[in-house]
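Many introductory courses stop at the sequence. We go one step further.
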Amino acid sequence: MIHAISNVELESYLDEALPQERMAEIENAFRDDPKLGERFAEIVSKRDAGVHTLGSIWRRNRLSCPSREKLGSYLLKVLDPDETEYINFHLETIGCRYCNASLGDLGQQHEAADAKERESRRTKYFQSSAGYLSVDD
């Protein structure tokens, strides 16, 4: 059973800013509840008419999302505890899809850079020790 769907959640659904599980629940609720579809149509028409609330502008522009630089610092574990706690809340509790995707991308870039650095180090070690290797025939 899903809990009641607020207008804020419908706006977030429109912006695709909800966790995937909640998006799927709302999608299924549309099929079962025609009144929900009417509420959603009203929200879309208000948005199309240029009626915006401060909250909707805040959510749409993701003003509560940490910067990519902050997410990188979070990944490297160099933030102070308060910032780390906020980003944990934002990623895990709020479930921000944008920030989770950005963090995943940063993690992949970090892993790729580490792999490239390791390979470069191996090559340098091999090249620097090449003269010291003896040939045993």
